[in-house]
Amino acid sequence: MATLSPARLRLADVLRVGGSGLRTRPLRAFLSALGIAIGIAAMTAVVGISASSRADLDRALAALGTNLLTVGPGNTMFGDAAKLPAESVAMISRIGPVREVAATGTVAGAQVYRSDRIPAAETGGISVQAAHLDLPGTVGAALADGIWLNAATARYPAVVLGATAARRLGIGGAGPQVLLGSRWFTVVGVLEPVPLASELDSAALVGWPAAETYLNFDGYPTTVYTRSVDAHVPAVRGVLAATANPENPNEVEVSRPSDALAAQKATDRTFTALLLGLGAVALLVGGIGVANTMVISVLERRAEIGLRRSLGATRGQIRGQFVAESLLLSLLGGAAGVLLGAAVTAGYALVQTWPTVVPVWVLGGGVAATVLIGALAGLYPAIRAARLPPTEALSAP
User: Fold this and answer.
1) Domain boundaries in the chain?
2) 334 close to 36: Cβ distance less than 8 angstroms
3) Can you tell me the distance from the alpha carbon of 391 to that of 388, in angstroms, rounded to the nearest whole number?
4) Distance between terminal CA atoms of the chain?
5) What does the DSSP assignment read for 104-124?
6) Rounded CA gap, 394 and 397, in Å?
7) What is the pLDDT of residues 45-97, one digit of tens each?
8) Most distant CA pair in the chain, distance
9) For residue 184, what pLDDT band results from cuts at 50, 70 and 90?
């Protein structure tokens, strides 16, 4: 007498049986998949926006250059403010890999006013800086209006305003006069914001000879900007302090503005981690929703389970049916979440004029997470469904 063995279900049959449970309860399936989609979309969008922001930073640094180094005075061993030697610019220019050198010097005691009727205390936080003529090319500054100082205007009362200084003074372009100290200077230009030398944004820049003639400038540089060959930037950075002030190199501070810009952007990682945590919580809630849906589905479909068991379905086939249903439910939510997160990333990057970057590992990780959640969420309900005796399931209301 031949022994009957249960038929093996093909993968397509398992998926078809699992999908039938979703088709019979579309609203519940949609709401459960929505929970998964929200979690995956949040995580994809957070990582995508963070990656797009970093790509924009890399693009900006590539355009601005990461080979800008600045030299400034530090403090003496007694805590007093130090000074750079007047010869420091010339000495730095002798360093082999250094290609460009320019300096600014703070004009002490000179304040900037739009008119002589403004109280002396209302300075607007604008500093007066003597500037070398090759400053814009060294720091990567561009003019929003007017012209930069030249060999002629650098000797006369002419001034170029930084972007913030011009805004605070209510000046939109070249032409007006401003009061520097006790002398009227004509505005010949206004700068665009300077990302790698933001201190210039709130400065009124005059020629080095004019500062000495009209504003009692002492001639000492306050900040020296240098551009070096990219491959030799670390080496140049190591010798700048000793070159600028051989007698007291410990009184010199050397910085790399691109590092500060990168560090400023890096502070966003804290918020990225927070948002990723929120996305993970949303994903967990979605997984709980899927598990709840599957448990209720088992309770509601006991008669169906009993009928299938009485017709010869094995416990393994019942488990496979409910696990497949849970996986399909999670995959639908995961796919929708990945697409939604990528769309949010693209939209935000477009508004911010960033390049759109969605790492492939995020897309793959989102799908993998949904598979894991679907398997875990459907495992207990599937085991519970498989353990129902056929007689008990068929007698259920």
Assistant:
1) 11-61+266-394, 67-264
2) yes
3) 9
4) 38
5) EEE-TT--EESSTTS-TT--T
6) 8
7) 888 887 888 788 777 766 666 788 889 888 877 777 788 888 999 999 999 89
8) 119
9) very high
